[in-house]
Amino acid sequence: MNKKIVLGLAATGTALAMLPLFAAFEAHVVNVTARIENALAVPIKYLEYGTVFPQEYLVKDVDVSLSQSFQDEGRVDDVEYFIRQKPKCAITWNNGQNYDNTVGSDGTHIYTRTGHVVPNLTTPDPNDYTIECGNAPRNLDTTKGEVWGVLPSLCEYLSKNENTEDENGANEEDLDQSVPAFHVPFTVDANGVHWLEAEGYLSKQDEDTRDNWAIDLAVPCFGGYCAQDWADFVHKYNIGADPDDFDQDIANEHKVFGCDLWIEVSDVSESNSPA
What we know:
By secondary structure, the protein is α+β, with helices and mostly antiparallel strands. The protein is 12% helix and 31% strand.
């Protein structure tokens, strides 16, 4: 009788040991694909104001709309986005009075780059930061005096105001947040970089699929050589700004100024209507 019990236990043990072997030879494949599209369409690639003069006020438009792919997709409805201003790096010569604005096949300036603000987190000084441009995008012509670096900033003088009139001239509900001229585009502290951003909102359900932003340039004066109504000019476009903060260094007179506008999606919401 004892032998039968021992043999029974051995047989059971063998059966248990063999059970995991069934799963060891199985394979299951889940084929995952996705087509990734942009939620926004921004047709314009760059803005050129050309030669401007102190206390001029010039306006150019930038359209931001829901992409056709986003409008065709029934699962999603609205998009929140922001416009952030960043330093611009370029190849310049003639003491910064000229720059390489070559345009590529994609409609962008191929020899400029966005400068990245890198704060020194070891110090509480808000002005202790660097702007990194990376390597020059092409070989420099040193005989011509070409240099690679950050352009004097135009960001402070650009306003971003959303036109709230629809195609019929009626005012739409304004859910966007504008930024006036004569402002500080970013600040730096021990926690990093903090951006002053214009905010936009588009919705298929609300039939608000396109924003038209007016990018207004209020041109600064230089080295204190400002018109008597300089303060009035500044306060006309930003009542809270200190005119003395936006009088440019005389060393920058005649130079090319620059700023990169980054339009980034911050949130996408799904549609409430059934698919």
